[in-house]
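To: structure subgroup
Subject: Chain for Friday's discussion

All,

I'm putting the inputs and outputs inline so they're searchable in the archive.
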Amino acid sequence: MTATDTRREPDTGARAAAIYALVAHRLAAFYDHQYWITQAQAAALCSDWLGRAQQSLPLSERKRLADLSDQLASQIRDSLSREAGLYTAHELMESLDPRHVSELGASIMDECVRLLKDSQL
């Protein structure tokens, strides 16, 4: 970051929200297109999400968040039927809009926060 750059480093909540967004996108790509987002794609997507909030992280940290999202999305994918996965992916993508209230989204966000905190130990 330069002295003229107005971006700031995100707090734990913003990092957890980035993981959440990556999980939503990973599951949507998987269930809608049978495609698993790569780490590089997830790190770039993370940068886009953080940029919208005028925040930034170095590539190494974005890759760490991408790895954490991969772990959680894989656990979710492996535990759901296709029908349940389609519903979950849709619900998570919808809940990226802050006006959309979702119990499922809230539980996944809680898991993102826990995963992030556990990874910092």
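Points worth raising on Friday:
The CA atoms of residues 21 and 96 lie 7 Å apart.
The two ends are 26 Å apart (CA to CA).

D.
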